[in-house]
Amino acid sequence: MSDDLAADCTLTSFDHGRSLRLPALAVTVTLPDRRTLTAPLDLRPLVVGAGADCDLVVADPRASRRHCELRLTERGVLLRDLGSKNGTLVRDVRVVEAFLPPGVAAAVGGCELVVGAAGPAAVLPLSQESAFGEAVGRSLTMRALFARLERAAPTDETLLLLGESGTGKEVLARAIHARSRRQSGPFVVVDCGAVAANLVESELFGHTRGAFTGAAGARPGLLEQASGGTLFIDEIGELPLDLQPKLLRALESRQVRRLGANEWLPFDARVVAATHRNLRARVLEGSFRADLYYRLSVLELHVPALRERKDDIPPLVERFLAGRDPPRTLADLPPGALALLATYDWPGNVRELRNTVARLVLFPELLHEVVGAAASPEPASPASDPPEGPASLADARLRRLLELPLPEARDVVIAELERAYVAEKLRQHDGNISHAAEAMGVSRQLVHRLLLRHNLRAR
Ligand SMILES: Nc1ncnc2c1ncn2[C@@H]1O[C@H](COP(=O)(O)OP(=O)(O)OP(=O)(O)O)[C@@H](O)[C@H]1O
Predict the structure, then answer these.
(1) Where is each Sigma-54 factor interaction domain found (predicted)?
(2) Which end of the chain is least crowded, N or C, by CB within 10 Å?
């Protein structure tokens, strides 16, 4: 691969960290019947598989529901197998994770997948801050998100935040509110996933006295209650289909009609909505209305999973430690903790990291049990529940391993050990590869290969 091509598919910051170069790339899949599908690859990871919620849906019986994922990184396009049944192969080698050079084909079931250039690169602004309100983040993807939020927050536009559970959508929504001209107004939260389906309507739109059994008095809905402020509609993907036109009408007309009432009442709330669902896929399968989706997605922002921005782990850990009572610092963590935290994939995202830090402060001796045992051989599925405690972490891991044939399970465990070992040795030697190699009793070349294999950076 020439240097030019390699540079073409990396995320690069320039202009003294003020701008991000986003190469224009397209992923093309050739199906077994030779038809081709193409999708652009941007800051969002692109999932390929047979499931309808994938970004590239391949009609191939040998492809798994969520087969593999491609992600643009500072080092190139990272291809990750998502625990597929038949594996993802590059040059006939089954890969768990590998950088895929442009023009090189990967085999996904019976399909062939290639990444290629698709026009001139885009330039995105990067925030100069490593936080947006309470949300901490110094990775390029978070700073690109912060830059967009800095512009969007002061406007009255409806925003849609997409991201896995625990990525910080609510923290960001609060920060958007705090940076808007509505900051002195209320910030009201409704979680469509938590409210019983038959109550969502009266929660959102309010009701008159006697509108239904048990409605002893009139009550304004949350849209009205948020007047002058912001309404954060969490898990909007769970909003019952029959209520979606009603919300759309309310957003368009800025008026609501309470359940049981005839008159329309004006409200003045800005709406920030969020979901961990792939709303576009839900629109395609008919469980989310296209018109409401287009109304909400005027400004659609993707909040990356924590495994996509491990640079954020140290400042997040620092923030969580500082928030303990009494406040702690990184020095209070057991040696090697940060390096070990970086080896884990965090299916529960920042929420799981926060809980892990809380446990580590209480039980530093459990470092390897709490984090090491949790190191996930399989990338997390967004729908999967994060493990809860040390015991269940170990159980969950064993369950996953038991699904594999013994030789594969052994490989997974060895790969995890290798990664954690190398990361820790490098940390102990301040990222000096020669010293780390000597301490490990291996050659520098092998350390370089291990870094590449495990997507680690020396410093
Ligand atoms: N960037 C961040 N900086 C600091 N804390 C964060 C950040 N992101 C998330 N958190 C913390 O992680 C926890 C989960 O965040 P939050 O509730 O905002 O996630 P979410 O995406 O809305 O999750 P869900 O979809 O499950 O509601 C919170 O305690 C929050 O304080």
Answers:
(1) 135-362
(2) C
Closest-lying ligand 1 atom to the alpha carbon of residue 353:
12
Q: How far is the CA of 46 from the centre of ligand 1 (A)?
A: 23
| Token pair belonging to 417 | 């050990």
Ligand 1 site, CB within 6 A: 134-137, 163, 165-171, 234, 276, 316, 319, 350-351, 354
Nearest CA to ligand 1 atom 10: 168
Take atom 29 of ligand 1 and give the residue whose Cα is closest.
351
Nearest CA to ligand 1 atom 4: 135
The pLDDT value given to residue 386 = 34
As to burial, measured by CB atoms within 10 angstroms (0-12 exposed, 13-18 middle, 19+ buried), residue 256 is buried
346, 312 contact by CB (below 8 A): no
Which of the four pLDDT bands, split at 50, 70 and 90, describes residue 395? low
* Residue 85 CA to ligand 1 centre (angstroms): 32
Does the bond joining 326 to the residue before it have cis omega, within 30 degrees of 0?
A: yes
Q: How far is the CA of 336 from the centre of ligand 1 (A)?
A: 25
**Residue ID of nearest Cα to ligand 1 atom 2:** 135
pTM of the full structure: 0.79
Q: Give mean pLDDT, residues 42-47.
A: 93
Q: How far away, in angstroms, is 161 Cα from ligand 1 center?
A: 12
Q: 88 alpha carbon to ligand 1 midpoint, in Å?
A: 32
